[in-house]
Amino acid sequence: MTRSILITGSSSGIGLAAARALHTRGWRVFATVRKPEDRLRLEEEGLESGILDMADTQSIEAGLADVLERTGGTLDALFNNAGFGLPGLVEDLPTDALRETFETNVFGLHHLTRAVIPTMRAQGHGRIVQHSSGFGRHVMQWRGAYNASKHALEGLTDTLRLEMRGSGIHISTLNTGPVTSKFRLNSIGPFERWIDWENSVDPDRYRRGLLKHLYEDRGPAPFQREPDAVVRRLIHAIEAPNPRPRYHITPAVHIAEALRRLFPQRVVDAIAARL
Prior knowledge:
The protein has about 280 residues and is of the alpha/beta class. The chain has helices at about 15-25, 35-45, 55-70, 95-125, 145-165, 185-195, 205-210, 210-215, 230-240, 250-260, 265-275; strands at about 5, 30-35, 50, 75-80, 125-130, 170-175, 245-250. It is built from eleven helices and seven strands. Strands 3-2-1-4-5-6-7 form a seven-stranded parallel sheet, sandwiched between helices. α1 (about 15-25) crosses α9 and α3 packs parallel to α4 (about 95-125). The protein is globular and about 60 Å long. The model has no long low-confidence stretch (mean pLDDT about 95).
């Protein structure tokens, strides 16, 4: 019997790579996106697609209803991949900007996750894979909104994993480091909309640091990997008889985990402050 998976944030990067790879492996993939033009592009490629905006509760419910109608009411896996970053210093981050970040990265993801659980309970099995980040366990400067949203996701997911024991529903978290994607480019819009950096207490700090990183293509980040590195772990999480609770992906995440174990927080902070 063909297995089905709903993937959010499938217009590019990891979501698109996952949709293509799983389609090739025989999965029935529902690659959801926010924009109709992206849906058309994916359908022209031969993928099943749909509209699902993680910041819009009605869109989440309509998108899931569309998928369940097409499958006859079943769903084997959910890959919560959609999310975005809003760079800027925490003291320059408006509360409404933080709220907007959480709407997609946490609240929308939570709403969709809860919505699929009854279907998975009824069928007696399911896989839910949450795309977190290395920043769900560690932090770096400029990423306060993103760090906070991923830390919140970690807490929700870890709790859900415990509560789903014995249900037949397996919960896994992907902690990824730098991966080739449009993440940097997609961060420019939120930054320009929310961060008044020129009136910051230290605008030169932005000029010396964030602006160069944000607006200049400076090539691959250290230890950067292609989306396939993430897709391989996703495949294990949804196909293995005993999936791991957590997958650390890319050397950067493994290094951060090692630093956390080996050194006191003061030392880790000093290292992070230099990056």
